[in-house]
Amino acid sequence: MDYPFHAESQSRIRATAERVFAHLDDHERLAAHMSQRSWRMGWGRMELQLDERAGRAIGSRIRLDGRVFGVRLGLEEIVTEYEPPARKVWETVGAPRLLVIGPYRMGFHLESQREGVTLTVFVDYAPPARGISRLLGRLFGHSYAQWCCDRMVADVSAALDPALANGSTQRRALGT
After folding, report:
1. 78 belongs to a structural domain
2. 74-131: per-residue pLDDT in tens?
3. 62 in a domain, yes or no?
4. Do 21 and 85 meet the contact criterion of CB atoms below 8 Å apart?
5. Does residue 160 contact residue 26 with C-beta atoms inside 8 Å?
6. Is 154 domain-assigned?
7. Could you tell me what percentage of the chain is helix, strand and coil, using 3-state DSSP and rounding each to the nearest 5?
8. Would you say 28 and 48 are in contact if contact means Cβ atoms under 8 Å apart?
């Protein structure tokens, strides 16, 4: 699949790659920003369902279902890369029912540094294919994708490196 858009967020964290990977490898914690009601989630929330491998192996399946702005949404993901403690990538399967982005590939990678790691969370995505979602994607897709990356980095930074709790991240949103 071709993903014409990219967003990412990056931060240095004073923790080992193993510790950061273990934190991010828990999809319940990773998707916490989607399971809590917020204005970015249209005061709705998504419910997470994991297979028996809990998203911790290539081929593992992850499902999200819920309502956002009163609209029923859902998607299924499959883990496509799993290289502890350095990298993990998952991708949507089929046609996700989302409002502002379409199919996507998302993941993170860790690069060990002298005093911790550099964490990069990214999402490569396509816009929604049709209907009102196509228009909403043009208006809000980039900011939503960036928000997801920023939230994941901020959540792990705050949990593992309290000095970064106020958000020392670098961000990038690109269309190719």
Report:
1. no
2. 999 999 999 999 999 999 999 999 889 999 999 999 999 988 999 999 999 999 988 8
3. no
4. yes
5. no
6. yes
7. 30, 40, 30
8. yes
